[in-house]
Amino acid sequence: MEAVCLNSEPVFDEGEDYEDEGDCTIDGDDELSENQSKREPLPPTVGLEFDSFDEAYDFYNIYAKEQGFGIRVSNSWFRSKRKERYRAKLSCSSAGFKKKSEANNPRPETRTGCPAMIVIKLVDSKRWRIVEVELEHNHPVSPEIKRFYKSHKRMIVAAEKAQQSEPVKEIHTIKLYRTGVVDAGFDLHSNVNEREGRNPVDHSKHLELKEGDTHALYHYFCRMKLTSPNFFYLMDLDDDGCLRNVFWADARSRAAYNYFYDSIAIDTSSLANKYEIPLISFVGINNHGQSVLLGCGFLGHESVEYFVWMFKAWVTCMQGRPPQVIITDRSKPLQVAVPEVFPQARHCYCLWYIMQRVPEKLGGLDGYEAIKRQLNKAVYDSLKIAEFETSWGDMIKRHGVADNKWLQALYEDREQWVPVFLKDISFLGMIPVKENESFNTFFDGYVHKHTSFKEFLDKYDLVMQRKHLQEAMGDLDSRSSTFELKTRCNFEVQISKLYTKEIFRRFQSEVEGMYSCFHTRQVSVSGAIITYVVKERVEVKGNEKEVRHYEVLYETTQAEVRCICSLFNFKGYLCRHALNVLNYNGVEEIPSKYILPRWSRDYKHRFPVDNVVTEIDVNHPVHLYNNLYKRVIQVVEAGAQSQEHYKLVLQQLHELLNKFSLVDDNLV
Fold it and tell me: Which GO terms describe its cellular component (predicted)?
């Protein structure tokens, strides 16, 4: 399921020597369609990787046969102590020139000094990667004469021998590189067909790629693997070689997940809105309150099985560590797939997605505007469950919509999307909980209904660069700016020294809002717990205001505080009502339990990496890479804080690279 199938002549069992050093091995699928076997193989591309030297040689030999030239191994490099080949150059058979012969009748010169070649290199001691490619020849090439090259003749002989025992399919599978942790993670080939109540996967459902889209995906992934070794991707193919699903995450997304994996939104708005590209995005919130991409993919079909594959690919990429909270649309496949892959996570439906569908679902009803107003009131203004139940019931009865199927389904699912039922969940600003709040998708403004696969991939790097620039500017502003204080409240001073600029600005509005609250009154005492009621004047429509009452619980021994509005869980910082009660009780600083480290301006620098990586397999290069990458991020964060830090980091890195060179020299 993670392979790209390319047509070629058959490749066969090891036995004979290469033409100038090699032969071929078979790697095929006898169920692939006739149409698949008629496609031309993709050309060699820098970054393409193979499981062995033989597989790399076979690939280039097959490509050469289709184009009409032969190949040979023109150079090999070996480690002297272990006699292990670690680099090789595969050239066109017309490369170079033969040595002059002193014979009376020397053979005519057939070589032309052709530059066409590929250079392959052993990486991580187990895979061979193409690191250089030259496709142009300085002589004519023709598929009509391809059988006359030695490297091809051995393939024909091997084919004849193989056909005596079993039929050979003309197919060659090139395995695109994927990070090794997938083998230790979920089984992406899990047999969901055998589960009770499931229908078999419809293999006719696949990504509808247009001309140029396949090559765009292929070349993008190869380029990214070459330039970013921690780039991760998986491709899901059906038995006919058709591409069903694709998932990928770049190095920054994988690193960001280590910091911001607590609350995640799975954005499927492109699917819901029937965009040309079936884009699915995994999005978190960074310490500036900005959306951060944690991986994305293309989904071939909106079904449970396809979503399960995508989610397992994502959590495998993130080394099997699931998020705590997952927010999605209410689609039926998602309702099944999310709890199946993430049984320990809290699965909630995005309120904004649901309310955006109100005009579509209810717009044709009599009294639509009145229904909409009462629905908004029930959803956004209810502070207690009883208030919601009463308001919802009044809406249903007054407007006679008890038979509306959509409203019935919403009510049945109310505990997964209505804010009053979600107060014990830490969303950290991932969902809008007020009527005037909105939810912006990560690729908002860059993807429209008719954006093609190729166009999206062309834009992807630009989007990521701009998002990373925004984050870098946020880091710079938070470190170098002096925050403007608008009150004399100690709470404001305290947070100004800790949080990033944007999160401080949001908290500052709550400090200012303390002055719209009045008449903080104690209403009951139960042991160490005191219940207060805080009144606040709030705007309801235009300039109209009304007074609302907010209950706040205060535990005196531990200075714990909780407001009925639950802003701390929804947004990640205390509300004005809770601040009023703390101030009322003479508390001058916000207790540490209500100061979240994830909002700190130096959060990524101070992040405890050891809490994330529990076990490191020293024999597994991917695990080593991931662990080193996380630690190096801390060095980068610290090095970017000043010119002195920057110079010191560069100096130490230079010295470290020199030491690596000395170690490598001792191994040769």
Answer: nucleus
Beta bridge partners of 534: 550
Q: At what angle do helices 643-667 and 621-639 cross, to 10 degrees?
A: 150
| Long-range contacts of residues 308-312, Cβ cutoff 8 Å, at least 24 apart | 308/190, 308/192, 308/337, 308/340, 308/341, 309/1, 309/188, 309/236, 309/244, 309/245, 310/245, 310/247, 310/280, 311/337, 311/338, 311/341, 311/342, 312/185, 312/186, 312/187, 312/188, 312/190, 312/341
**Whole-prediction pTM:** 0.69
Compute CA distances 109 → 99, 235, 560, whole Å: 10, 46, 89
549-575 burial, b at 16+ Cβ within 10 Å, e below that, comes to: ebbbbbeeeebebbbbbbbbbbbbbbb
User: In this structure, are residues 182 and 316 in contact, taking their beta carbons and an 8 Å threshold?
Assistant: yes
- Per-residue confidence band for 623, with pLDDT thresholds at 50, 70 and 90: low
Kindly indicate the confidence band of residue 571, based on its pLDDT and cuts at 50, 70 and 90.
very high
Range of lowest pLDDT (109-113, 118-122, 406-410, 499-503): 109-113
Q: pLDDT confidence of 251, banded at 50, 70, 90?
A: confident
Q: Hunting for tokens 């560590």 — which residue is that?
A: 321
Give the span between the Cα atoms of 90 and 18, in whole angstroms: 11
Pairing of strands 232-237, 172-174: unpaired
Q: How confident is the model at residue 108 (pLDDT cuts 50, 70, 90)?
A: low
Query: What does 252-265 look like in DSSP terms, one character per residue?
Result: HHHHHHHHS-SEEE
3-state class (DSSP) for residue 517: strand
- Supply the pLDDT for residue 23: 32
Question: What is the rounded (10 degree) CA torsion for 436, 441, 447, 452?
Answer: -140
CA distance 308 to 326: 14
Closest listed residue to residue 585, CA positions, set 556, 625, 553: 556
User: Are the C-beta atoms of residues 295 and 247 closer than 8 Å to each other?
Assistant: yes
The confidence score (pLDDT) of residue 90 equals: 93
**Which of 181, 262, 323, 187 lies closest to 616 in space, CA to CA?**
181
Which pLDDT band holds residue 64 (cuts at 50, 70, 90)? confident
Could you tell me which residues come within 8 angstroms of residue 653 by beta carbon, excluding any fewer than 6 positions away?
none
Tens-place pLDDT, residues 180-199: 333 333 444 444 443 334 44
Q: How many CB atoms lie within 10 A of CB 54?
A: 18
> Which residues, in sequence order, are bridge partners of residue 371?
none
- C-alpha–C-alpha distance, residues 171 and 169, integer Å: 6
